[in-house]
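Lecture notes, unit on protein representations.

Consider one protein chain, 319 amino acids long.
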Amino acid sequence: MIFPWLRGFVWPIHAPVSWVLLWLNVFWFIALGLSHSATDSGIDYSDIKWVESQKEMVSQYMENKNINFSKSYYPSEAVAYKLLLEPNFVNFLNKNKSLYKGDLLTFEYRINKIQKYLNNMQRRPAWIFGYQNGLSHSFFGWLTYQFMHGGWFHLVSNMILLIIFAGAIEFDEQKDEKSKNQLLKSVFVLLTYILSGAAGAYFFSYLSPDQEGVPLIGASASVSGLIGAYLVLNKNNKMRFFYFLGVKDWGYIYLPVLTLFVFYFVVDIAARLSQDPLFSSGVANVAHIGGFLFGAMLAWLKLIYTRFDYESKNNLGRP
């Protein structure tokens, strides 16, 4: 195991915004009780088997979504379960009753039952505050989803990376004009977190239109933006990693900061390209990619502004 450690956990006094973001995520998680999986819908197994048996209707629905049906590994319970989470699929069934081969009373019973499950599911916090391909229940879904998590592991893993990278960016060793530098870095961390998360939602909407029904939640896109920003701001440096190979074989190693590009960007690209068009691994890799790129862009703009401000104050580049 190898893990970026940088400065470790920076104290709140040195990285106030980073810690505020962390505690907002923790508070939101506990307040809404999101200890269950975001995909736990309570759909009955018999409903899954029923959808699995409707090959003609499912085939037509796939064609309408421009999905290569031969690559979807049908028949499959996984395919049927995925479709039951899509409101558009239920609407399609209602509009295409003529394709159904069987008793219409059974059809109505199944549709009403599935619709009830969907209605109950969409009243859960993850669906209310999460982001669903531009169909969020809340106008601020692009913002609120950044503070939602589907379980303790999801929350803890994101918060460790948040405090490590945001804290490293926000922390200021310089003593001169410390308050000004601290304020600027704190504002930069806040903007990078929020805007990178929004960029992740945008990427998810337009590059994963096939992922319907399950909301986008988590701070991963925002954290990816902070990682991208850290990479650009420190691209010529080395950073500390913690490694653990065994009880007697662990410690720290220093690697180029560009290592982050492989760990947190190339890996997401590879994961995205390897995904089946119908299925999601449960990880919104495309949102991570969008957040990473936007965070890197913000850091690049920050470097340009810093250089311009320095040259202006020192009358550099002028005759």
